[in-house]
UniProtKB/TrEMBL annotation, chains A, B, C, D, E, F:
Homohexamer; trimer of dimers. Pathway: Cofactor biosynthesis; molybdopterin biosynthesis. Belongs to the MoaC family. Substrate binds at residues 76-78, 112-113. The active site is at 127. Its EC number is 4.6.1.17. The lineage of its organism: Bacteria, Bacillati, Actinomycetota, Actinomycetes, Streptosporangiales. Residues 16-149 form the Molybdopterin cofactor biosynthesis C (MoaC) domain. Keywords: Lyase, Molybdenum cofactor biosynthesis. This is Cyclic pyranopterin monophosphate synthase. Catalyzes the conversion of (8S)-3',8-cyclo-7,8-dihydroguanosine 5'-triphosphate to cyclic pyranopterin monophosphate (cPMP).
């Protein structure tokens, strides 16, 4: 039944769902999100006056490492192999757009890994700019596309 | 200079800022965020027809544990003591509102811990409902209030 | 030779045993354990007077997450995939009975994961009740059943 | 009120209890436990015929490292400093007796750290002997003594 | 092109390289390293006067556990299965020689796991002897041999 | 007695040494190390032809994060606060020189944290260049200077 929370059993108790019966297959997911920043913080990220060597780099690496920590953070996520993780950060007028693509060949989808990577990259970016912009906010963290598995290709409606 | 990224040195290289000179003192932070859900997912969370024992509980615990993992996830965060963490989830018409309050007595603020707790709780909630609502999104993750330290009391403008 | 500690080489040095030659196959294990509690703590867990929303839920989730941390905790355990983890807690007159079932399809058995889940769930439960019952004890943590692998089906004699 | 679960708030929701108001002070705890083993496994641990260099050493080190992982494993435990951890394993006729002593100077007691160290040492020992004795069991894991903090000196009744 | 850093994309941004197209196959790596110690520290390690039960054992176990932590430590390493890890420490006149052999059957090589195991074993050994020899140094940590994968058998020239 | 391994008790068993009696005070350590690279790899790191945005940045961040993981990796290290971590990488003719400075105010020194940061930065750098230079080696990882604590100021002889 599509309307049930699959992570809960019939008594409402949490469980790691048994995926033994699922096929191993190529799966991928794309998630995106944005960090809304003040004009000053955006100008600083774009400016040539302040060295920014690692500014976006720290967030990108935090995102990639965050993808690997997904089963440690999300209680019911299966520990799975990850075959590729790419995190992109684009400075825009209102802040920074983050995109993460994750690939695997395993028994479960990787949308949680992609969402976690975007979230951790966003958190690390906020940590970088918080002295300049304490009001920075994370918004629109969501799955855009998902391929593989029984449900096949899903794109955000 | 307020306009510099304090986590970067003069060459743009990332560093964990030296806080030896900061005073140990009571500090607290409140962060909030929301998970936007479909009407079906909200109805399911509110409905009595499906047992939901652990549905919100998993997210709450994931958030509390996430606060403790902050220095593991955010590259330049200092490992600090945490003296209290509270995560609240409220089911609303559009989804679930999440609030986290963190307290400590240490040399750095705890707004990153509060933001991380909200983000991880939100991710865990999405993991719970994703079979029902694959389009769930995290939005408005931000610091609302911060007390203690040199900057004193800050509230979101 | 059955009487050797397989985790030690011929000089007595610890090693992670080479399982390259073992077949990938479906494997499962069931472990159980009990937390002995005072009558007051049991009554509190059963009582409707005190809200207990997360009381057993925290222990259940800690157990599931503990199963995933097994290779981090047990020095010579192989990092393996987990395909399903279920932790059950039943309040009984003398305390709480804990059962964990773990499934995988990999090269090693999952009895250590099941035992670790039971132990961590038990520890988390003690943490919940320790203000009420500082004398709580964990007992009878053991493998009940194990299937898959070269040794096939094993049940506790 | 002594009869409440301090880790749950008035709605039954789990929280990391605020210990800001507690004094920093010297605290210590002793926990014990036993691993019940077959006569064959005990004989092997005592025998000089098989090199056992790391047999007990692996369990001892796993226990010490386990103490440090307590806040990662137990959802509501505070991350605290540890000033000393000692794990002792004694081979007895029925198995192995484990004792752990933990010291700190912080705002919370360390009985959960001591119990976790005993449990992880016991699990690691079972992992070492499981090919010889698949029926090994952990029993009697409990706090023996606790000093420091508001409650002062507590010994197992 | 052999001269490119495969972990960077065409813009210089770090990524976890996509290995979906690589074959799963048996792979192995051997890495070595040395800890240079004072004559006093070497004599102590060799002497029968001071009990040294766990001296080398701690380093050996730290190395094995370190191999498992490789994807947590090295930002762009893939999380992979490990099928066997062996760490050897030999006391020599100038210090201690460390060798690690790692085996797997996965899509990437295991030389980083072998190097990490050697490094962590070396660090743990220095931690053991640092009160006696604060000038201890790690040297010559390097891959000696690597088999499996597209590049086949590689031995240090 | 200076000639004893402080991490072993009188029976040779490993322990986390009790530092309760040590004073909390400002402590710092500097460690260095080098990664020896082929001329081709050095030229690539220096060349403007290949984008190298994150090449050294990944290693720098891995080092900083590695410092925070020290108590997880080194079995007998105390979990302590870190107040500042700085990792510097300089490309030289023979490879890359790495320096790490760590500061704290706690009961134990931070030389292990500094050594771990250098080692992990070196491992991450090797991971970046290994496709170009499979023979890269880590050498001369050692403490240069240490201040604070009972032993006061120590500099490498």
């Amino acid at each position: 039944m599509a309307s049930e929370f699959t992570h809960l059993d019939e008594t409402g108790a949490a469980r790691m769902v048994d995926v033994s019966g699922k096929d191993v297959g190529a799966r991928a997911a794309v998630a995106t999100g944005r960090v809304l920043l003040s004009a000053e913080a955006v100008a600083l990220l774009r400016s040539g006056e302040v060295p920014k060597g690692d500014a976006l780099g720290v967030a990108r690496i935090a995102g990639i490492m965050g993808a690997k920590r997904t089963p440690d953070l999300i209680p019911l996520c299966h520990p799975i192999a990850l075959h590729g993780v790419k995190v992109t950060l684009d400075v825009e007028d209102q802040g920074v757009a983050i995109t993460c693509r994750v690939k695997t060949a395993d028994r479960t989808g990787v949308e949680m890994e992609a969402l976690t990577a975007v979230s951790v990259a966003a958190l690390a970016l906020i940590d970088m700019v918080k002295a300049v912009d304490p009001a920075a906010a994370i918004t629109d963290v969501r799955v855009e596309e998902k391929t593989g598995g029984k449900t096949g290709h899903w794109t955000r409606p």
